[in-house]
Amino acid sequence: MRLQPLQEFVCDTCGDVISSPDQGWVEWLSDGDRMTHSFRIIHKFNGRCAHHERKLNHQGTGLTSFVGDGPDSLTYLYAILDEGYIVEQPNDTPMVRDIKEWAELARRVSLPHYEQARRYLPRARAEGHLDGLHEGSLYLQDTLRMVIDLYADDDSLGTA
Question: Which residues constitute the domain of residue 140?
C-alpha cells in the first residue's frame, strides 16, 4: 500500500491510515515551563486513539494546521519550536524538550513521501541501501521514493 504524500498519515496509536489531514489530529504535552514534547499524529476525535487527552498538560490541534495550507501550514509548526523575536519570552530557549522529536514531526508533515518511507528506513539502513548517504540526503525525495519502492510492496506499512 502506498500513502498519498502529505494527504495520508499513519496513526501513532492504532497504526491505521488517516485518510486526509482533516481526519487527523496532532497532540502533545506541555510542561509547566512551556516545554513541549511527546508529539503524536492520531485520528481526530477518536477516543481510542487519543493518548494524551487525560493528562492535564495535554495540547493539540487539527492536522490541517500543519499540512495543506501552503506556507501558512508551517507557521504553526515553527511556533511550537520558537515564538520568534517579536513575542516577548521569559527566556530565549527553544520551547521543545527534544529537538529531534520536533524534527520528526516536522518531517512527517512537510516532506512528501517521508510519512511512508520513515517506516522502512531502519530496514533500508540495515540492508545497506543507505550506505554512503549523509544526513541531508537521507530525506531527499529521490531517496525516500527509492526506499518506498524497495519495501512498500512487502507489507502494508512496515514497522515504526
Answer: 111-160
Per the CB < 8 A criterion, the answer to whether 115 and 10 are in contact is yes
Task: Output the pTM of the full model.
Answer: 0.87
Return the HEC string of 102-155. Answer: HHHHHHHHHCCCHHHHCCCHHHHHHCCCCCCCCCCHHHCHHHHHHHHHHHCCCC
Q: Is residue 104 part of a domain?
A: no
**Residue 34 and residue 58 in one domain:** yes
In a domain, 159, yes or no: yes
Cell of 17: 491510515
- d(CA 104, CA 119) in angstroms, rounded, equals 12
Give the Cα separation of 55 and 41 in Å (integer).
17
Per-residue pLDDT tens for 14-65?
999 999 999 999 999 988 777 899 999 999 977 788 776 666 678 889 999 9
Contact residues for 6 (Cβ-Cβ < 8 A; gap 6+): 21, 67, 68, 109, 110, 112, 115
The total number of structural domains that make up the chain:
2
